[in-house]
Amino acid sequence: MIEIAPSILSADFTRLGEQIEAAERGGATIIHVDVMDGHFVPNITLGLPVVRSLARATRLPLDTHLMISEPGRYAEQFAEAGARMVSVHIEVDPHIHRTLASIRKRGAKAGVVINPATSLSALDEVLNYVDYVLVMSVNPGFGGQEFIPTSVEKIRRLSRTIRERGLDVRVEVDGGIGPENIAQVAAAGAEIFVAGTAVFGQPDPAAATRELLNAAAQLV
Question: Is 174 designated active site?
């Protein structure tokens, strides 16, 4: 099932509720929330208070992507705040099994994130404990970056590994997704597409979301 997860990092925060509603009208089924600490990535964005407010403002599940240096300290708190999906980077958490378990303990889906230069082999011992893998197709930290083409093959290899191991794990992709490449990435095995500029950077987020869904269906 193809799902669009608009990233509020690219939204107009003076009209956030309105823009989320528009994306939902266009077919968005998830709202992506980028949490950055200015340490693991060179930017600072949203925190727990915003997630709590969003959880009250929309019925769509919140997909919270923790780009922070100590996710084990905070992941459970984000689930408690209302996030129904919480993902942490494999590169930064030496006790990621414990972190993933804490997320699930609070009733949220647990995800692991992998950066463009990180080998898929880093996920070997983690795949059995996650609900989804978020593949970064740009280097994390900023919106509006160009899609890294080698991400397509990386997603294809990851999807094949998941099938071969018989796991119920979904593949999400984040970075540079637009109408021109979403079908190719979907054909490689991705199911959840984070889209920031491609949705909220457009005059009509509802129409932009519909365009992404229609484009994804072309090769699926």
Answer: yes
